[in-house]
Description:
It is a single chain. The chain is mainly alpha-helical. The protein has a single domain, classed as EF-hand (Recoverin, domain 1), CATH 1.10.238. It has five helices and two strands. The chain has helices at about 10-35, 45-60, 65-85, 95-105, 110-140, and strands at about 145-150, 155-160. Strands 1-2 form a two-stranded antiparallel ribbon. β1 and β2 (about 155-160) form a beta hairpin. The chain is globular, with a radius of gyration of 20 Å.
Amino acid sequence: MGNILFCDCEQILQAKEDRDGLDEVNSQMVHRLFELYNYDRHGKLSVDEFVTMRLNQKCSHANVSQDFSEQIKEQSIREFHTQLDANFKPVSYRTFKQYMWRNLKAIEPTDRNAQFLILEGLLIEAQVAREMVERSRRRNLPTILTSIPTATAGTEFSPKRKVAGPPLTGPARRQ
Length: 175
């Protein structure tokens, strides 16, 4: 008889359990990220919340210029428009989760440990951003977000409609 190669099936099963467990942990982290972004706690992520959190995440590291803040704001508005909702309507956790997985897999398609580390970093930034939002709301400071562009013909944006930022007290109610 020839040589028969045996695999260590227990090792393969353990690796699969580790991957599945990490997927569950990553899913929990994405859910926590949604909760942090959804600071008005109304179950849907609005463009105001998304942009405000992104601005606070990107701008919390140091004093940044107004131009940089505007670039982040415009980029975040476009991202919401192109990847979450083209009509700027609030999105569910499911839509946010799909958005996060698409972006995570674009950055790191196969390495779940790397995905975990990316999510861990995003969570830390989001926690800091959420604290900044909460402090601003307690002090009755105006929101960073003062206008939302609307889509015009094609894919261009223009700041046509003004949207007040998140309310300073109580949950946002859009009707």
